[in-house]
Specification:
mainly alpha
């Protein structure tokens, strides 16, 4: 099954976002986006190309990190106020009713596994810094090549 490329789909330019950029160049606006991201602790790699793709309509709805940054930059506005399409229409999550079982739920039920496991927000830290060297074990010490050959140090 082939997925339609972004060029085969008709894109509608995001004129609202272009107006919000004002007199700044795409590069200057990208720098402002990166600054705003740092203010709220987000990490985005916005550049002039990304701004151009948003304005051209190639990016119909930003990812969650960009969403938080844009809403921080333009308080009181929604994504649709910024010229983006609702996430449900872009990502396809609105097409599936919430009461429908998750894909693979029947298989999980047959295995005796719970159908839903909460996923921790952050991964658990590793038990040991290195799986082959648990705490308290002695790690091999690097021996200079001269000492290994029996030459006097």
């Amino acid at each position: 099954m082939t997925r339609p490329s972004s060029t085969s789909r008709s894109t509608v330019p995001n004129e609202v976002f272009r107006q919000l950029r004002g007199g700044l160049s795409p590069g200057e606006f990208a720098a402002a986006v990166r600054r705003a991201a740092r203010e709220i602790g987000e990490r985005v790699s916005c550049d002039a190309r990304y701004v151009g793709r948003v304005e051209a309509g190639e990016i119909r709805c930003p990812n969650y990190a960009y969403e938080r940054v844009f809403l921080h930059m333009f308080p009181g506005r929604t994504l649709t106020d910024l010229g983006f399409q609702p996430r449900e229409t872009v990502r396809g999550r609105g097409a599936r009713p919430r009461t429908a079982p998750a894909p693979g739920a029947a298989w999980l039920a047959g295995c005796g596994a719970p159908a839903h496991r909460p996923v921790p927000w952050r991964a658990e830290p590793a038990r040991h810094p290195h799986p082959h060297h648990p705490p308290g074990s002695r790690r091999p010490v690097a021996v200079p090549a001269r000492a290994r050959r029996g030459a006097p140090g």
